[in-house]
Amino acid sequence: MNELEPGDQEEKPSPQPQENIPVDPNIRISQKPTKKEKIQRIIKVAELLMQGLTGPQILQYTSEKLKWGISDRTLDNYLVEAYKLFEKDALAHHSEEFGKALRRLNFLFANCLKIQDYKAALAMQREINEMMGFRNKFTIQAEVENKETIFMVDSSETANEFKRMKDELSKIDKRLPTDGEGTN
Length: 184
Prior knowledge:
Elements: H1 35-50, H2 55-64, H3 72-90, H4 94-114, H5 118-132, E1 138-144, E2 147-153, H6 156-175
Antiparallel strand pairs: 1-2
Helix pairs in contact: 1-3, 4-5
């Protein structure tokens, strides 16, 4: 046997060299997204829906471009949540949205006047008038079967259409037999 002299060390097999894999701190090992990531994904899916993409197109985009690696089922869950966002937006309080729209129009009206764009200012005022219901009102009175009916309409086109319908009805009334004339 070989004796070891002082200072000699027993040779140990050298460990296999490990591959140097760069570690990106932004990449997580877990496949399941955090709550924050899930919300961001749902918002992204909603944006893609608004751009007109279909479910399969969104799945392809998220797989190829965003590298989400999600299943059809997971995408379906994201789509359901995205549509819930749309529904929530649609249920916004009418009075709040009306007030916001009116303030925007007044702001645009004032800025149009500042730059002396009177044509645009007039367009803004017309839009405000329409929002507030300040349009011309037309009244049409009609007598059908000895009962007077009054129609209130808020545009000249609708008023003309009602007048045409009234004229058509009066033609039919003249053709119908009256009591005692040919009725059994």
